[in-house]
Design a protein that fits this description.
The chain contains eleven helices and no strands. By secondary structure, the chain is mainly α. The longest helix has 24 residues, at 114-137.
Length: 221
């Protein structure tokens, strides 16, 4: 006898979530170990300037569009900001996600109203689709894209899309769609540390390092 939709939901909300969380934590620790503990050759040159704020300054400046690029690539920058901020808001401030963390750790926090999360999720989905259309229509971006770029795009879209569809009762029954939502989120967790998605936690480390080391060498970052 095959597993029912309820059986699948029980597994993804229990064992599946535990496995995904363990793999995610292992991957994050491994990547951070590579970054911080494998080491680099010591910089023996005297610094060109004192650099206590250079790393933070680079984090800020690299988070803004370079001059003129917003006009040249509005979909890339506007869509990118909408998606990244929206995805973070949905993950952290959706009431069901907070309830899941509360059940697992005993830690909770206030969330946003459901209509607000719904609007943010939809905006993020639309932004992701528009960014992909722009990539496919742009010859240079299309040439530079590899399988991993399309793969991680799909991995990122699916949790948003299935969560939105589960909430609105679209396509499949709620239990099945919720199972797909949780499964897609767990696949995202498992793959995140081992793909380009790792920039979610290495981005600011890299920008701080680039800003700090560039300032030591007396060059702009």
């Amino acid at each position: 006898m095959g597993a029912s939709a309820t059986d699948v939901l029980v597994w993804v909300s229990g064992s599946g979530l535990a496995i995904a969380g363990a793999v995610f934590l292992f991957g994050v620790v491994l990547r951070l170990f590579e970054i911080f503990l494998l080491g680099r050759a010591p910089d023996l040159a005297a610094p060109r300037e004192v650099t206590p704020g250079s790393g933070l300054r680079t984090i800020w400046t690299r988070s803004l569009p370079p001059q003129g690029m917003l006009r040249r690539s509005p979909v890339t920058y506007v869509g990118g900001y909408v998606f990244h901020v929206g995805f973070l808001v949905v993950v952290i401030l959706a009431a069901p996600h907070i309830a899941t963390v509360l059940n697992l750790t005993g830690i909770g926090w206030p969330g946003l109203p459901t209509p607000a999360i719904d609007a943010v999720a939809l905006a993020s989905i639309v932004a992701l689709v528009l960014v992909m259309i722009d990539r496919l229509r742009n010859r240079v971006k299309r040439f530079l894209s590899r399988f991993e770029d399309y793969f991680v795009w799909a991995l990122t879209l699916l949790p948003l899309l299935t969560g939105y569809m589960a909430h609105h009762g679209l396509l499949l029954d709620y239990t099945t769609m919720l199972s797909l939502h949780m499964l897609s989120a767990e696949i995202l967790l498992v793959t995140l540390p081992f793909t380009k998605l790792a920039h979610a936690f290495t981005l600011f480390i890299a920008r701080w390092y680039n800003g700090d080391i560039s300032a030591r060498k007396g060059v702009a970052s």
